[in-house]
Structures are given as C-alpha cells and as structure tokens.
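task queued by scheduler; priority normal; single chain, no ligands, no partner chains; default sampling; output format set to structure tokens
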Amino acid sequence: MSAGLPVAAEEFLSWLAVEKGRRPSTLAAYRRDLAAYYTWIGDRPLADVREADIESYIAKLRATGRAPASIARAVVAVRSLHRFCAVEGGLERDVASDVAVPRVPAGLPKPLSEDEVVRLFAVVDTSQAFGRRDRAMLELLYGTGMRISELVGLRLGDLDLDGGLVRVFGKGAKERIVPIGRMAYEALQDYLGTGGRSELEPERWARRGDADALFLNRRGGRLSRQGAWGAVRVHAIEAGLASRLTPHVLRHSCATHLLDHGADLRVVQELLGHASISTTQVYTKVSQERLREVYQAAHPRAKRRPVGMSR
C-alpha cells in the first residue's frame, strides 16, 4: 500500500478499520483514492479546500476516462474523509457534504441464449455422484432463478418433490416458495437416488447441520458458496462459456427467458425474491426489439398501417 498520507487521512483509515470493520481490500482502495486526492489538492490543508475544488477534482477524474464505479468510489472516499475530519478532526464545516456521488449505471449481465443453456447441461457427466450433484445445482439455478447463496443454504427438508416445490430463504431470511420445473425435478431425483448424494455422505458428519444439507462437498460437508461457484465454472469452461457464465448469469437468464415467453413481471418478482418491482424491471431488462414485438402484437392501436394505405 502507498505511504505518505497526512495524519488526518491515516486516522480516518484506522477508524474505518477498527470502528467500521472495513475489509483490507476496501481500505487499500480508499488509500489509493485518498492518495490521488491529496496529490490533486497539493500542499493545501483540508480546511482550505472548498466545494468547487472537489467538483473540479471529480471533473478531472471523468476526463481521465475512469469507470463510473471507480469515480463514485473515489468521491465516497473524499466525502467520508471530510465528514470524519469535520466531526473528529476539528474542521469548522464539511464542505463535501453537498457534493453528489456520481450515479453508476446499472450493469446487467448478458443472459445465455436458450441454445447455450442446452449446451451447458449437455456437458455435465451424470455417471458419477458429483456430476449428478452439479446437474441438479445448475438446473435449480436456471430453473428457479435463486441466488447461489440461497442454493447452498438449502436443506433436504426444504424440498417438496411430491408437490414440485422448494422453500428458499433469501435476503433478510425472507422465505418464499418456488416451483420446481420438470428438468430440475428429474435432476434432483437422480441426485437424491442411488449413486448420487448418498455416495458423498461421510461415515461421520463433521459439523452439526451437514447431514441435512442438500448439496455436499468432497469431504461430505455442506457445499460452500465458493465450492458451488467453482463447480459452475468447471462446466462453463467445458461448454465454451467461460467468459460469460456465472451463477448470477443463470439467474438473469432464468428471468429473461421467462419474460421472453410471456411471464408476468409480478410473477418474476415473486420468483426472484425481489422486494420491489423496480428491481425486477432493471434485473430482467428485455431488449427493445422484444418489447416492440409484444407491443405491436398486443395493442389494438399499434398495428402497422397496411401497405398502400395513404397517410
């Protein structure tokens, strides 16, 4: 990490670490941002910096072509430093309080095509227990749109295969009931049958709760988020989708394909576990061409004018 920051900045970073519990990677990013800021203001103390100076600094960051997210983080670091010094360091006022943090455009992963989904599932070898596990995981991720953290948290008791349902605990431990499609149902049956999950069970469970975990790792414990991510990665490489496929892309693909086939936005919201419909609208962004097709087909006053009809 870079050295030479003023005492006020070092005290601010120490406060972030001790009082706020910020991660080392976050602290390192803040240190870099603050080092660049102090280079910009030169020898002037923070007490002499004005709001216009900070606005000029933001304009300079934009001019260098930095990504919006990177600029936003840098501005947050500067604003937080000024606020800290105003409260703890004796500055008369916080000149950065009215400086707006640049808006970061919502990023959306490109969903897989339906043919690419088929290609992904085709590379999974289900002749072994781990292949059956991975096929069941992939089918659930794509078939239900659940988050990978929700997937690895599933217990055997959360499944109702007779009813074709699974209980999912999302953010804030909010519970929702999600239907299981035919392909996911068959993959789960295969995994829970002979030669599947039972082959991964240890002679003795190492931790309480592992015995009820739906997905197990090579040591017979509950599969971690990192382990599940790695399994997805392996099959992404095999299918030639390594540069695009993540568990989040499968979630996005699920929602996008549902909308493409006419699903109601509220239904997709419930399926994904979003508290706000606006989140779903961003997350399940459909191409403008698709929207135009649906509009032209559905609205009575949107039909194209017959060829040859005068204006």
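post-processing summary
- The two ends are 69 Å apart (CA to CA).
- The longest strand covers residues 165-169.
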